[in-house]
Amino acid sequence: xxLNILTFTAAAVPFPxxxxxxxxxxxxxxxxxxxxxxxxxxxxxxxSSTQPQKYVYPDPIPEFAVAETQKFKTELLKKLSKExxxxxxxxxxxxxxxxxIFNEFLHKEYxxxxxxxxxxxxxxxxxxxxxKLPGAALSARASLLWAQNYVDQDWETWTxxxxxx
Length: 165
What we know:
The protein is mainly alpha-helical. The chain has 8 helices and 2 strands; from the N terminus they run E-H-E-H-H-H-H-H-H-H. The chain has a domain at 60-159.
């Protein structure tokens, strides 16, 4: 094991008197010397600690996606049915569009807490507007709020049950 010594030298630089608002300036440069012993074994860094570790989210679980979509559809229908004047006879169509987009997201993208994205909910609003269905913003917002409140929690419950079996 080799022992290295690092030496640092600092010299005082005379400052202009305008900065300190007086005429006293150091005439002799001030030099400081100090040494720090360094052991080479402290300098070696294991290769694994230099690369940040990435967390890999689990793949989507199709059975979870089916069950969660059904729960979502039931709850969204219940929530939006309170707004009969907004949706009229098209409530089932609105819920079907939202559930279809949500189902696709759960099957392709959702891999547990930390993977709930806002895109499927903006996609819901766009799809509802394109199909000229009522309450696009209300439906997308209700869908997003439901998902924020339940999806991650339901995932945790689902996966913990699967581990026990």
